[in-house]
Amino acid sequence: MNWATAVEVTLVDRFAQSEADGALPTLYAAVADVPGGSYAGPGGLFEGRGAPKLVGRSKAARDTAVARRLWTVSEELTGVTFPLAAQPTR
After folding, report:
1. Which residue ranges in the chain fall short of pLDDT 70?
2. What is the pLDDT of residues 56-72, one digit of tens each?
């Protein structure tokens, strides 16, 4: 292993998590009783690793106009439609 790869592996091990651990927030969101509009992510340092918990969302992630457009485009591209219930604003 060359020095650059060794540095990369060390940094990834220290600041990121394994693929299995990375999947835990998604599983948590799918099976836990979480409020609508919530975001599950790693609960550790800088929300980059750790056990899943509800974490904050960026301003962009809370943009309801972008969310509505994404929903519309997804329906158009897949040909599958679902009613979009009104979501409380946060």
Report:
1. 84-90
2. 888 988 899 999 999 99
Asked if residue 47 lies in contact with residue 57, where contact means CB atoms within 8 angstroms, the answer is: no
From the list 40, 42, 2, 1, the residue with the least C-alpha distance to 18 is 42
Q: Which amino acid is at 71?
A: W
Number of H helices, E strands in the chain: 3, 2
3-class SS string, 22-45: HHHHHHHHHHCCCCCCCEEEECCH
Which residue reads 């009104």 in tokens? 86
pLDDT score for 46: 83
